[in-house]
Design brief:
Length: about 210
């Protein structure tokens, strides 16, 4: 399949085959696709919790209004945005930039100072909104990559974030559960896979000026 065919093949899978599990090697590929997603300033101010433990998935299902894909999917990717930016986040980024791009700290420390001046003064609420927006870019990478290796996914926003935060012990880590992706293999009983996508025509959706 070419890329467009992959987009047509994928759909928001509602019923997963609970018996089929994603291989460790494919999980690593999905992780790599998420890691390569662009983020503002390249800071990656989020964390992705990957849940494969069935007991925890069952708990999360209860906090997701009993949606079956949470318990039946092979893995649950919980995208969590950072609710607070600290100087260490920026220092770590600058150190990594120096190491990976082989640049002396002295050459890029000014950029680190710029980031601190720009970001550390942001209000708490604005930080959460900004970092949550970054998470959706990472989610889109997962969803567009998975079809290339024959894996299905379903984005989920219908869940109690407060309960997720408690179950996954996020509150004391300056993290908040933002959006979820259930990932696995579609069930033959999922009728949604046979339905045509409903989309606006390009004439309606796009405007060139």
């Amino acid at each position: 399949m070419n890329v467009i065919d992959q987009y047509k093949w994928r759909y928001a899978t509602k019923k997963f085959d609970a018996k089929k599990k994603i291989s460790d090697s494919n999980i690593e590929l999905i992780k790599e696709s998420i890691s390569l997603a662009p983020t503002s300033y390249g800071l990656q101010l989020f964390k992705v919790i990957i849940v494969e433990n069935q007991e925890i998935k069952n708990e999360l299902k209860k906090a997701s209004y009993n949606q079956s894909q949470i318990s039946d999917a092979s893995h649950i990717f919980v995208f969590c945005n950072s609710t607070k930016i600290i100087g260490d986040d920026i220092d770590t980024y600058i150190k990594n930039k120096s190491s990976i791009q082989n640049k002396p700290i002295s050459e890029i420390s000014g950029y680190g100072d710029f980031l601190k001046t720009t970001l550390l003064k942001k209000e708490h609420k604005k930080v959460s909104i900004w970092t949550a927006n970054q998470v959706y870019i990472a989610l889109s990478h997962l969803m567009t990559f998975c079809p290339s290796i024959g894996i299905d996914s379903c984005p989920v926003e219908g869940f109690d974030s407060y309960k997720y935060n408690e179950i996954l012990n996020l509150n004391n880590r300056n993290l908040n559960s933002t959006v979820v992706a259930a990932v696995g293999y579609r069930s033959n009983k999922d009728s949604s896979q046979y339905e045509k996508k409903i989309r606006k025509s390009n004439d309606e959706l796009f405007e060139t000026i």
